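Table 4 source record.
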Amino acid sequence: MIGLTRVWAAALVWLGAALAGSTTRAEAVSAANSSETTLRLHWAGMSLIARSTNGAYLAGIRSLPQSKRFEGEILDRLALFLAQARPASLVDVTNLGPVVSNTPAARLLRPLLGDVIENEAWIEAKPGQWSLAVRLNEAKATTWGSSLTAGLPQIPGASRAGSVSSFPTWQLPDSRRASITRQRGWTVVSLWTGVGAAPAPGFGPRLGEKPQVSAGTNDWIEGEVNLQALLGPFAPGWTPPFGWPKTKVTVGGDGQNIVTRAVAVFPRELKLNLEPWLIPTNYIYGELASFTAVRGLGQVLDSLPAWQKKDFALGTTPNQFSAWSIMRLPIQTTAVVPDPNAAADTAVLTKWLLTRNQPWFSGSTVAQFVPAENGNGVQWGGLPYLAPRVCALTNNGRPLVLGTFGAVEGKPVGIPVELQKTLAETNLVAYSWDFGAERLHQLVYTGQFIRFVFHKAQLAQDMAAIPWMEAAGPRLGFCASAIRQTGPNQLSFVRRATLGLSSLDLHLLVDWVESPLFPNGFHTLSAPAPADPVDLPSAHGGSTGSGVR
């Protein structure tokens, strides 16, 4: 449920940006030079999903007290954002209930967000136009009408602007308008730029009298996404080497997992360099908790402005990489990049790491990067049981750069036969697999350590997200994701995961929700940096007194 809530949270963020006349996501989208749909999604509603056989396991995780608290925090934050009443910073706020209760517009909007989660809904965004339709009974529809009538005028800069076809209309900041109408059992909220009546949404003809998803059978989410409008504002002026694709997405269930499928069609032929995998399996020491491999990266990396502006120069742009973690070793994560200039590039990375972090580590007796004793790369000094390092190695005569958080030692075990079969697929671009119950726990340790290394704020135990991860984590099964080239200009994505997200995705979700500037930024990047280091943090924030627990 939390994974599905994330989809709707992001969609509702755009509606909130429209309400406020924000210059963030919705403003950038409306400025796009296109009349094409930015986003159109159909949602079956959690009440239907919970009743279906395929949604029973998901509903069980959602019923956990920790899940309810975390979901409530997400909706509280959304309500404050939609009401444009978010405090200047949420960095020290762990209970948003009183804040919402004391904010009139947020207090009125908060129950409506719960209705969007529970009931069948459509959401659509186009340049200058946003529409939300929710299937509601008459009693709920009346509540929506009264809540929006009372709540919208309390948004800064908003005022009543009369009626269109007997339905109320409001004037919002920056020449935007809002209206609420009732159509064939649906309550439709529209936001648009201009005068006159709201433009008809594209999903209008599909607002039928019967639910459009049969319990236990069809997709829970289906829709289309314009990635240029969604992602373009975050990288102004950048275009992928093969152009921006048109993408269709479906999300459903199989009883134990959420199954996500997407097909992206690009305007130009994909000319990915799908070179043979170069995975040093003789450096895999133990049973895998996760594994990721990606190839065909070179052209995309070279086109990214951030890669072009990086403050270190490598002799070779990576075209593939692989990474893995080992069961029952929380900090043991290894990543490898094949690199014909491995020795020279490792020297560059060594200099960058020592220079980049020296001011932060200067006052610490246990936290410091130091040159490797053998002169090959850089390693962590001060803690013998925690051994992050970067070094150049060779595997079957092929040079590579290896980075690891733990000591690389033991008897090589390689990779399972089934994984070998998957990697043998000639059209496979990327594959990622993790055992959620183990990997989610591991990433808490790894994430807190990375934040410590780069002098970023820790996730604290009193956040709703940490108890949720501790409660939901043991209930997670395997997550398997694959991207394949299924046509000259087409990529297809398939994922099966308990909550629809990988362990890494769940951590990013937590980091996003806990941002003090939500829905902008991440907690790691937005929260105040900690004071000078004294000791290593624990997995749940604070110091351990003797290193990572």
